[in-house]
Amino acid sequence: MEALRNFAAAKNSGHKISMVTAYDAPSARLISGTGIDALLVGDSVMMAVHGHSDTLAATPAIMALHTAAVARGGPGCLIVADMPFLSARKGTAYALDTAAELLRSGAHAVKIEGAGSTVAVIRELVEAGIPVMGHLGLQPQSVRATDGYHVQAKNPSEVLELLDDAQALEKAGAFALVLECIPSEAAKKITAKLTIPTIGIGAGPHCDGQILVWHDLHALNPSFKPRFVRHFGDASAESRRALSAYAEAVHSGQFPNAEESF
Ligand code: KIV
Ligand code: NA
């Protein structure tokens, strides 16, 4: 599903869109042929890969570096790259420059958190030919203001506000919308009111698609298991098994053997 129009068509056809984050070439290579519809080079790379406790350290250069690595891996699906912290908040020129850097690095589209003053910026990017995915609900780039990672839109007035923002993003030309950590019923309502697909994470089963962070679905950090994460595999256990086997084989002199030597 490399084309954007397939993404749009999915909403009407009832095909649920499967998305995962990826940050490097070997991961992107693994995605090819698995049925994953699209991938996100998320600024969650700062947490999952770089060990930060939030995403604020991401810069356009870091996002471009990971985007280029993912594109070289040839995932054969739509590549969306995150616009990092503040890059859509410094005016249209800076946003255009950042989006251009990400597209030149191999992204097909960018994702921007929030509504408000970024709606006008998103409209400008879309008019310039840059496909934009929106992101509402929990906005990790605002954790310092929202005081951490909590479920959003828990009361009816907050749901209405969220719906307003979602419709503003749709009107500005966003091609899809991530909804993060909101109640299922809120996501259901917003999904029904929009013509663009919603992609949920911690937003229940009624979204048009789902996204999970690579390291979460693979249980690469097994102690991190919030309610919305399912471990679809245990790459951590497999990796530790391989590492122990290698260490043991080196210590015992079993590796390398004659066939593995020149
Ligand atoms: O950076 C990220 O991984 C994201 C997804 C969780 C939507 O923005
Ligand atoms: Na992100």
UniProtKB/TrEMBL annotation:
3-methyl-2-oxobutanoate binds at residues 43-44, 82, 111. GO terms for cellular component: cytoplasm. It holds the Pfam family Pantoate_transf. It is found in: Cytoplasm. Binds 1 Mg(2+) ion per subunit. The active site is at 180 (proton acceptor). Its cofactor is Mg(2+). One of its GO terms (molecular function) is methyltransferase activity. Its main location: cytoplasm. It catalyses: (6R)-5,10-methylene-5,6,7,8-tetrahydrofolate + 3-methyl-2-oxobutanoate + H2O = 2-dehydropantoate + (6S)-5,6,7,8-tetrahydrofolate. It is an enzyme of class 2 (transferase). Pathway: Cofactor biosynthesis; (R)-pantothenate biosynthesis; (R)-pantoate from 3-methyl-2-oxobutanoate: step 1/2. Its EC number is 2.1.2.11. One of its GO terms (biological process) is pantothenate biosynthetic process. Keywords: Cytoplasm, Magnesium, Metal-binding, Methyltransferase, Pantothenate biosynthesis, Transferase. SUPFAM superfamilies: Phosphoenolpyruvate/pyruvate domain. Mg(2+) binds at residues 43, 82, 113. Homodecamer; pentamer of dimers. Catalyzes the reversible reaction in which hydroxymethyl group from 5,10-methylenetetrahydrofolate is transferred onto alpha-ketoisovalerate to form ketopantoate. Belongs to the PanB family. PANTHER family: 3-METHYL-2-OXOBUTANOATE HYDROXYMETHYLTRANSFERASE (PTHR20881:SF0). This is 3-methyl-2-oxobutanoate hydroxymethyltransferase. It comes from Cephaloticoccus capnophilus. The gene is panB.
